[in-house]
Design goal:
two-stranded parallel ribbon; about 120 residues; Transcription Regulator spoIIAA; single chain; alpha/beta; 4 helices
Length: about 120
């Protein structure tokens, strides 16, 4: 049997894409507004919402909080320490008097509202 004649096929390689010269966007902190009532029922939802945002700088707006319950305070304290361990910022730039008083009564004021974290 005779072999079929070979056609001359040329492989065309795509040219490399030009370098993207646009500057990278400046990372800004993501705002996250807390509900007014942070009680036992809100703890699971709060935990899930924080976990979705893990790994990025986060600003927690606590200015509308009327009630800070113990379990939600623990969730927020754990998040603050987790963010610190991950090397990203979690801040509370705005906090209501009720939030500050609740954090103070629960012994979590330094963890939630100060610049440094206890060691």
């Amino acid at each position: 049997m005779a072999a079929a004649p070979r056609t001359n096929r040329r492989r065309v390689r795509p040219s490399p894409a030009p370098a993207d010269l646009t500057p990278e966007p400046v990372q800004t902190m993501t705002p996250f507004r807390l509900d007014e009532t942070l009680d036992l029922r809100a703890a699971g939802v709060l935990r899930a919402a924080l976990l979705e945002r893990r790994g990025a700088d986060l600003q927690v707006d606590a200015s509308s909080v009327v009630h800070l319950g113990g379990l939600c305070a623990q969730v927020l304290a754990a998040a603050a320490l987790t963010w610190a361990a991950d090397g990203v910022a979690l801040t509370f730039p705005a906090a209501s008097d009720a939030f500050e008083q609740g954090a103070r009564l629960l012994g979590l004021h330094s963890t939630l509202l100060s610049e440094g974290f206890p060691t």
